Amino acid sequence: MSHEWILCHQQQRVRTLTLNRPEVRNALSNDCLEQLVQQLEQADADAEIGAIVITGSSRYFAAGADLRELQQQTVATAMTDRRPQLWQRLHNITKPLIAAVNGYALGAGCELVLACDLVICGESARFGLPEITLGLMPGAGGTQRLIRSVGKALANQMILTGEAIDAQKAQQAGLVSEVCIDALTLERAEQIARRISEFSPLALRAAKAALKTAYETSLSQGLLAERQQFVALAGTADRQEGITAFLEKRKPTFKGV
């Protein structure tokens, strides 16, 4: 593709991906989403990367889908659209995804935030699903992930009114884990990503998989899946190294085996 809509930066074991479509407020067109997913899959397959940060600009994280694309859509083209597969591929990433959000995360931008494992935002951040104001509804997980994240009352209000919430409300509701001053959002997200990236890749993958199971199944199924992941780690050298290093009062060296 000729456009570079996703900028890449790597420091130690953290890969940072920056949405870069300023002319349309980082709107997530199919091509832009595809570039993002390709970069995520590349990072996911790279043993030198432990965690991934996704960020936007100071004023916009991402302001929705590309309306020009949606304007052309019919029922037939919507049914055969490649977009759902792109979101599914994003959902399949096994490494921790951290969203660093300043400014607006609306529509598909908010759905991208919801698809991340951890969200750090600045005081300027605004989260919303305004699709209803366009005669639409969220179509990339918005109705399903938001209600699981913030609960029935707030999810219904946000989706049926189309009104955004601010950073404080997002933190109270459990959508974001930390709010910083805008200038420090990315730095804080990368700091957390660095901490995460130093741990055993096998343990991180297992923990993320178990957390995702909690999101999707009953408690008894979740407990069973958690136990299976826990037992699987018993055969790893990383687990042996982690425990030995703790007992020997030294920093562990994890190798992903």
From TrEMBL:
Its EC number is 4.2.1.17. Belongs to the enoyl-CoA hydratase/isomerase family. InterPro entries: ClpP/crotonase-like_dom_sf (IPR029045), Enoyl-CoA_hyd/isom_CS (IPR018376), Enoyl-CoA_hydra/iso (IPR001753), Enoyl-CoA_hydra_C (IPR014748). NCBIfam families: PRK09674.1. One of its GO terms (molecular function) is enoyl-CoA hydratase activity. It comes from Xenorhabdus aichiensis. This is 2,3-dehydroadipyl-CoA hydratase. Keywords: Lyase. The keyword Lyase applies.
